[in-house]
Write a structure and sequence with these properties.
Helix content is 42%, strand content 15%. The chain is of the alpha/beta class and 325 residues long. It folds into 2 domains: 8-181 and 221-244, NAD(P)-binding Rossmann-like Domain (Rossmann fold, 3-Layer(aba) Sandwich); 190-217 and 249-286 and 305-324, UDP-galactose 4-epimerase, domain 1, CATH 3.90.25. α1 (17-28) packs across α7, α2 crosses α4 (90-115) and α6 runs parallel beside α8. The structure holds NADP nicotinamide-adenine-dinucleotide phosphate and ligand G4F. Residues 12-13, 15-19, 37-38, 40-41, 55-57, 77-81, 96, 124, 126, 177, 179-180, 186 line the site of NADP nicotinamide-adenine-dinucleotide phosphate. The site of NADP nicotinamide-adenine-dinucleotide phosphate has 26 residues, from α1 and β5.
Length: 325
C-alpha cells in the first residue's frame, strides 16, 4: 500500500489563542506543524525546531521561512488583534493586520513558482468588518461597514486575499470568524478579563472589576470548535469564503451573569464602569449566519455559551489558587 505523505502546515501567530488550538488540531491529524513567532515571544533568538522568528511588519525573511518549512497549508493568524488598541496604534495595526497579509500572500505566490507546488492559504478575517451592521444576521453577502482601524485593516486583507485568488489562481480563502473565546484567550479581551476577575474576586485576590460598554452584544463561540472550520475550508475542492459563528447573541451583561453566577456571586456591586474603556466608535451587535459553513463544510459549534463561560472561570479559578500559593 502506498504511504500517504505527511502534510505540512505553517501557522503565523502560533503563540496566540487560535494558534494554540489549531496546532493541536492539526497534530492530531498527523500534520507536521511549523510556526512563526514574533520578537515578543519568550526565549528570543532561541526558537526551537519548526519555529521561526518573523514579523508581518517586515517581510524580509518570509520567503526563507517558506523555503525551510515547505508548507502545503498556511494559516495566517498573526495580527495586532485588539480593537481598542487599534485606535491608539492605527498605523501599526494597518501595517501588521492589513499590509502584513499582502506580504505573506506575495511571498507565497513567489514560493509557489520557485517550488512548483500549490499552497493553500487561510486568512483570519473577522466579523468586526461588519461593524455598524447593515443587516442581521450577517452572512458572506452582507456589506462591510468597519468601525475601527483594526476592522479597516482586516477589510484590506480580506480583499487582498480575494485579489490574489482571482489574479494568480491561488487557493486563498477568508474565514470570517465571529468572536471565539477559551481559557487561552488574551487577558485584555472582555470574556477573559471577566473570567479572570471572577476567579480572583471569589478567592479574595481582587475587589472590583472595571469595564467599558457592557451592553455590547456578540456572537461568542469556543475557539476549539472554530479552528476545525479553518481546516475544513482548506480541504474543499474550490476556494471560497465562509462565515463561522454560533448564531446566538449575548451581551457582556449575559457573560457577567453566567460567570459570576457560576461561583454564586451577584456582579452588580462588584463591577464598575470606566469611561476610558469605551471605544471612539463601538460595534453594538454582531450575529453570524453560518448556514454556508453548516451546509458546505458540515461544520457546527459544539460548546454552548454557558459551557464556555464556566470552562473559562474553572480554568481561572485554578490559576488564582496557584497565585495564592
Ligand atoms: P491573538 O491571541 O491576539 O494572537 C495573535 C498572534 O499574532 C499572536 O501570536 C501574536 O504574537 C501574533 N502577532 C502579533 N503581531 C505580530 C506581528 N507583527 N508579526 C507576527 N506575529 C504577530 O489572536 P487570536 O484570538 O488567536 O486570533 C487569531 C487571528 O484571528 C487574528 O488575526 C485575529 O485578528 C483573528 N480573529 C480573531 C477572532 C477572535 O474572536 N479570537 C475573531 C475573528 C478574527 P505575539 O503575542 O508574540 O505578538
Ligand atoms: O472582547 P473584545 O475586546 O472583543 P471585540 O472588540 O469584539 O474583538 C474581538 O473579536 C473580533 C471578532 O468580532 C476579532 F476580530 C478581534 O480580533 C477580537 O478578537 O470586546 C467585546 C465587547 C466590545 O463591544 C467592547 O467594547 O466588549 C466590550 N467591552 C466592555 N468592557 C470591553 C470591555 N472590551 C474589552 N476588551 N475590555 C473591557 O473592559
Amino acid at each position: 500500500m502506498a504511504e500517504t505523505k505527511q502534510r505540512r502546515a505553517l501557522i503565523t501567530g502560533i503563540s496566540g489563542q487560535d494558534g494554540y488550538y489549531l496546532t493541536r488540531f492539526l497534530q492530531e491529524r498527523n500534520y507536521e506543524v511549523h510556526g512563526i513567532v514574533s520578537c515578543r515571544a519568550p526565549g528570543i533568538g532561541e526558537a526551537g525546531e519548526r519555529l521561526y522568528y518573523a514579523d508581518l511588519a517586515d517581510g524580509s525573511n518570509l520567503s526563507q521561512i517558506l523555503d525551510k518549512s515547505q508548507p502545503d497549508e498556511v494559516y495566517n493568524l498573526a495580527a495586532q488583534s485588539h480593537v481598542r488598541l487599534s485606535f491608539d496604534l492605527p498605523q501599526y495595526t494597518a501595517d501588521v493586520t492589513g499590509v502584513g497579509v499582502l506580504r505573506m500572500l506575495d511571498a507565497i505566490r513567489e514560493f509557489q513558482q520557485r517550488a512548483g507546488k500549490q499552497v493553500r492559504f487561510y486568512q483570519a478575517s473577522s466579523s468586526e468588518m461588519f461593524g455598524k451592521v447593515v443587516e442581521t444576521p450577517q452572512s458572506e453577502s452582507t456589506p462591510f461597514y468597519p468601525r475601527s482601524p483594526y476592522a479597516c485593516a482586516k477589510v484590506y486583507a480580506y480583499w487582498q486575499t480575494i485579489n490574489y485568488r482571482e489574479s494568480y489562481d491561488m487557493f486563498a480563502v477568508n474565514g470570517i470568524l465571529f468572536n471565539h473565546e477559551s481559557p487561552r484567550r488574551g487577558e485584555a479581551f472582555v470574556t477573559r478579563k471577566i473570567s479572570k476577575a471572577v476567579a480572583r474576586i471569589k478567592l479574595g485576590l481582587q475587589e472590583k472589576l472595571s469595564l467599558g460598554n457592557i451592553n455590547a452584544q456578540r456572537d461568542w463561540g469556543f475557539a476549539g470548535d472554530f479552528v476545525e472550520a479553518m481546516w475544513l475550508m482548506l480541504q474543499q475542492d474550490v476556494p471560497e469564503d465562509y462565515v463561522v459563528a454560533t448564531g446566538q447573541v449575548h451581551s457582556v451583561r449575559d457573560f457577567l451573569d453566567a460567570t459570576f453566577g457560576h461561583v454564586g456571586l451577584d456582579w452588580t456591586d462588584l463591577v464598575e464602569t470606566d469611561q476610558n474603556l469605551f471605544r471612539p466608535a463601538e460595534v453594538d451587535l454582531l450575529c453570524g449566519d453560518a448556514s454556508k459553513a453548516r451546509e458546505k463544510l458540515n461544520w457546527q459549534p459544539k460548546v454552548s455559551f454557558k459551557e464556555l463561560a464556566e470552562m473559562m472561570v474553572d480554568h481561572d479559578l485554578k490559576l488564582a489558587r496557584k497565585e495564592m500559593g
